[in-house]
Every structure is written in structure tokens, then in C-alpha cells.
């Protein structure tokens, strides 16, 4: 079955998967979604006998149907190789009150590696498949982890250039150091005065500037994105939900067909939307638990059907979730309504008014698939400490938010199904917060704190962070949001 893609804001155009990956975002401002959702062709019992790479192939082949088997397998082998520090790229840890799906064993120690080690290879294959001979310029906004993972994936990939924009004072010192030390003649990372939403909005505006894109096309460039607005970034994330279930099946944690819940820390809604797709292609998922931090715009939306970005933006101990405009929610709204005009109107309200309201009928549909909760910084700290004391498992701040909300869900549903918590980053990425949570006074800078955490926990500093302090800073630019377009144009002349 060939799967084509269309915009969430228009019913006119149908394009292939490779073209959707290549474009990144529709010219009408919408995001690409499949016109029909496929189903796994291999049973979960059969997949339980396979490794991660084979599971990845079985998922990618049903969504990216115009890629050949050779192309997909080649992309997968290049992505999930020795750059991961475990035999399988993803590890499922069994726990007493929840299982942990560890997604942070890649080169940048965060879950973004699961998709962003693969996307550059998908993108270059898509370019070749569509006869694209222009250089591909990747523009990406990041709230912390996407930027480093994207640059690491695209560094020195032929015929690509990548520019990453991050909130200058809105990421951890370790996240910033990971980005500004990134090597690669085709890479740039730029601080933005403002927050993640400012950076994301500015990048989207460039994608919608048709005159600018036409001018750059004449000069031999085309834009694409490494954010989860790109379907080539989202589809690989479906894989680890399938893999998690097959690991539970293989270990006897569930019987075939038995439903499980997934608790997902999310800000931009891409990670949890991948779980929704996994459910639709055949994974027995009971409920997707949407876990927010104090920037609880998603919790409020799922509670009321009213989405309101006009609120105070809070800097929290889980910075990758510090987001008020959850881009991938647009995809879900289209998938549940099937009406591009409705979605276009809602997104116009969000842009012009800062808020929108969905119907009661749609809220009811949301509640059949999702349950939402939130956890503030105090709760996050207490949760890390509790998990460490009671289970001797060390987790980061984002994982703690998901675990805390999972316990809220279980308390509200006494007859709950098994819960898998998505563990999205290593605790070593946020050493000060983790040390404080386990009763230690953090000392020195974050690099000293990593060593302190290693000594206290008995765990090793991940190789992706070891030696980071000594790496030279290669990127120092910081700009105002309104200068982003001019900056991009200037860099394309000199990069």
C-alpha cells in the first residue's frame, strides 16, 4: 500500500513520503500527515524475536513507502551503529512501579538521537530520489536537546548545511556547551534573546517566506527542517513504542494483545504523537499519559479544550519541556477531525489571538486516547529522590515528571494497565538538579557536578559528556529574534 502525505491545512496536494521528508513543512504553513495510516505487516510476536534495527525497518517501510528496502536498511545501519553505547540503541529497564524505556544511549545522551541519527540519511536519500541537486539548508529551533542531536547527525554530511537556534538563557550549561562545541564545516549554532517559542516562530516564518525561498532556490539552496515538524523526524520515533512492547512481550511482562500505558514527558507534542501513531498501527496501547512541567499548556488544553499560549513562560528544571506552542498538536487535531479548514482556523486563532477553543466532541475524542497531568519543580525534585531511595534508579528531571504523572494516573485509575515511562535524557545532563534531589549539595560548575554525581551514584559519566569541559567553543553568535532572517541570508553567503 502506497502511503502519501498531505498538509494539515489543505486537502489539495498529495506527495510522496520522500518529498514530505525533503520539504519538511508545507508551503501553506501546515504539517505533513499520512493520507491513510498503515498497519504493521509483521506480528508483534514475530517482532519480539527481532532487534531494534529490524523493528525500525518494519515500521519505516509501511510509512515511507517510496523508499527502497536497500535505502531504508542502509539508513538504519548508518544511524544505529557504534555511536550508541549499548548493544541495542534502546533499553527497557523493568521497575516495580513502572518500567523505564531508556532513550538516551546515543551520542548526545537524549532521546532526540533516536530520530536525528536517522534523519540526515533519510533526507539525503530523499534528495537523490527526487533529483534534488541544490544544497539542503536545515533550519532548526531547539529547547535544548534537538540542536545538538541535529548538528551531530548532519555534521559534514555532503550537500547539507545546518543552522540551529536556541534560547540563550533557556537551556542548561551542559546543553549549551554540547551545542557550541559542535564540529563540522557545515554547522552553525546561534543563541536567540528570548525563549524557545520565539526561536520556533522565527524559523517557521522563514519556511513560509515564498519570495525568500525562490531567491535562494536560484542560488542553489532549499530549506528543510530537523524539528519534529518534519515527518522524517516523527516516523522514527514510532519505532521505540513498538520495540518497547515487543520487549515486554519477550520478557513475559505482558501477554500478546494485553494493553499497556505510556507516560511521556512532552512539550512540543512530537514524542507522544509518535505513540498515538504506534497505537494506530497495531501496538496495544491503552492510554498515552501526557506529562507536563509547570508550563502546563497541554495539561490545561486536555482538561478544557482551550489552548492558551498567552501566559507566563517559566524556566524549569526540565528545560526541554519549556514550550508554550506545541507544534505537533496540530497534527493530532487534523487526524481526529479530518478537516483541514477547522485546523487552519484554529491555527489562525492561535497566531492572531494567542488561543483557540475546540469542540466538546473533540475533547471527548482526546480523552479516549490521552490522559494529562503535570508536575512542578518541587515535585520533580521529590520524585527523583523517591525513585533513588526506593528503587535505586537514577533518573533525570524530564523522566521524573513522567514518572510522577504516571503515579497520578495510576491513583486515578485503580484498575490501571502496566505503565512504561519514557526516560528521555541521562541524569548526567542535569547534575545539579539530580544531586539536590538525592540529598547532595552540588559543588562547582556542571562538569564538576557530573563527577560528583558519578561518585555518589556509582554510575559512569556517559561518553557523550565525558571530556566536554575541555572542548573549545566554536560558535559564539547571539542575535535578536527579529534579526534571524537577515542572519540566515548572510550565513548562506559565507558558511
Walkthrough of the structure:
By secondary structure, this protein is an alpha/beta fold. The protein has a domain of 242 residues: Rossmann fold (3-Layer(aba) Sandwich), CATH 3.40.50.1100. Helix content is 45%, strand content 15%. It is built from 21 helices and 15 strands. Helix 3 crosses helix 4. 52% of the residues are buried.
Considering the chains and any ligands shown, give keywords for the structure:
495 residues; alpha/beta; Rossmann fold; six-stranded mixed beta sheet; five-stranded parallel beta sheet; 21 helices
In short:
By secondary structure, this protein is of the alpha/beta class. It has a domain at 91-109 and 237-459: Rossmann fold (3-Layer(aba) Sandwich), CATH 3.40.50.1100. Helices cover 45% and strands 15% of the residues.
Amino acid at each position: 500500500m502506497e502511503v502519501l502525505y498531505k498538509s494539515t491545512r489543505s486537502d489539495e496536494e498529495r506527495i510522496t513520503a520522500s518529498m514530505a521528508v525533503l520539504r519538511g513543512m508545507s508551503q501553506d504553513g501546515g504539517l505533513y500527515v499520512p493520507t491513510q495510516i498503515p498497519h504493521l505487516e509483521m506480528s508483534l510476536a514475530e517482532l519480539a524475536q527481532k532487534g531494534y534495527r529490524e523493528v525500525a525497518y518494519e515500521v519505516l517501510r509501511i510509512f515511507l513507502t517510496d523508499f527502497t528496502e536497500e535505502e531504508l536498511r542502509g539508513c538504519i545501519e548508518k544511524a544505529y551503529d557504534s555511536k550508541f553505547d549499548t548493544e541495542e540503541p534502546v533499553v527497557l529497564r523493568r521497575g516495580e512501579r513502572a518500567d523505564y524505556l531508556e532513550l538516551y544511549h546515543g551520542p548526545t545522551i537524549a532521546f532526540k538521537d533516536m530520530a536525528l541519527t536517522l534523519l540526515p540519511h533519510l533526507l539525503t536519500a530523499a534528495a537523490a530520489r527526487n533529483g534534488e541537486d541544490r544544497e539542503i539548508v536545515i533550519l532548526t529551533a531547539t529547547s535544548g536537546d534537538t540542536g545538538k542531536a541535529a548538528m551531530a547527525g548532519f555534521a559534514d554530511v555532503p550537500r547539507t548545511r545546518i543552522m540551529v537556534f536556541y534560547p540563550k538563557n533557556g537551556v542548561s550549561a551542559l546543553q549549551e556547551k554540547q551545542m557550541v562545541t559542535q564540529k563540522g564545516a557545515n554547522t552553525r549554532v546561534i543563541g536567540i534573546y528570548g525563549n524557545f517559542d520565539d526561536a520556533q516562530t522565527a524559523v517557521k516564518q522563514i519556511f513560509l517566506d515564498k519570495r525568500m525561498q525562490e531567491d535562494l532556490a536560484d542560488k542553489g539552496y532549499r530549506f528543510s527542517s530537523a524539528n519534529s515538524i518534519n515527518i522524517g523526524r516523527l516516523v522514527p520515533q514510532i519505532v521505540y513504542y513498538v520495540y518497547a512492547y515487543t520487549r515486554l512481550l519477550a520478557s513475559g511482562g505482558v501477554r500478546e494483545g494485553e494493553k499497556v500505558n505510556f507516560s511521556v514527558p512532552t512539550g512540543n507534542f512530537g514524542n507522544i504523537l509518535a505513540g498515538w501513531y504506534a497505537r494506530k498501527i497495531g501496538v496495544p496501547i491503552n492510554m498515552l499519559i501526557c506529562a507536563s512541567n509547570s508550563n502546563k499548556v497541554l495539561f490545561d488544553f486536555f482538561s478544557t479544550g482551550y489552548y492558551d499560549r498567552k501566559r507566563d513562560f517559566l524556566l524549569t528544571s526540565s528545560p526541554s519541556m519549556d514550550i508554550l506552542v506545541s507544534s505537533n498538536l496540530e497534527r493530532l487535531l487534523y487526524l481526529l477531525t479530518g478537516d483541514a479548514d477547522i485546523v487552519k482556523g484554529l491555527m489562525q486563532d492561535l497566531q492572531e489571538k494567542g488561543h483557540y477553543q475546540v469542540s466538546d466532541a473533540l475533547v471527548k475524542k482526546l480523552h479516549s486516547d490521552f490522559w494529562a497531568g503535570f508536575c512542578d519543580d518541587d515535585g520533580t525534585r521529590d520524585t527523583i529522590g523517591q525513585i533513588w531511595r526506593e528503587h535505586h534508579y537514577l533518573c533525570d528531571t524530564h523522566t521524573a515528571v513522567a514518572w510522577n504523572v504516571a503515579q497520578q494516573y495510576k491513583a486515578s485509575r485503580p484498575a490501571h494497565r502496566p505503565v512504561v515511562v519514557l526516560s528521555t535524557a541521562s541524569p548526567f545532563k542535569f547534575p545539579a538538579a539530580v544531586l539536590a534531589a538525592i540529598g547532595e549539595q552540588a559543588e562547582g560548575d556542571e562538569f564538576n557536578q557530573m563527577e560528583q554525581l558519578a561518585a555518589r551514584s556509582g554510575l559512569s559519566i556517559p561518553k557523550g559528556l565525558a571530556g566536554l569541559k575541555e572542548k573549545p567553543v566554536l560558535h559564539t553568535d547571539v542575535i535578536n529574534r527579529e534579526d534571524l532572517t537577515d542572519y540566515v541570508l548572510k550565513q548562506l553567503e559565507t558558511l
